[in-house]
Design brief:
Layout (H helix, E strand, L loop, with lengths): L2 H37 L3 H36 L2
Helix pairs in contact: 1-2
Length: 80
């Protein structure tokens, strides 16, 4: 393994780490929104909490795609 391959693998690992960190943020916000929905009694408040949860869920799905892409780059590096 030469120095260039090691550097590319390190970059891919860093991308994966960043993507996992970015994924944890909407997941935490999603959990908070769901917990808040359980505490609300007014339908509008529950609806607001669910809208927030939906938004964060979409954000999490987007970040998960970054994790998949980074993992694919690592797999590609490993097969070379």
């Amino acid at each position: 393994m030469n120095q260039m391959e090691l550097t590319m693998k390190d970059v891919a690992l860093e991308e994966l780490d960043d993507a996992i960190h970015a994924l944890s943020q909407p997941m935490t916000a999603l959990l908070f929104a769901v917990e808040m929905a359980f505490l609300r009694t007014a339908p509008e408040q529950i609806q607001d909490a669910l809208n927030t949860a939906r938004t964060e869920c979409r954000r999490a799905v987007s970040e998960l795609e970054r994790v998949r892409e980074a993992a694919a780059r690592l797999r590609a590096e490993g097969s070379q």
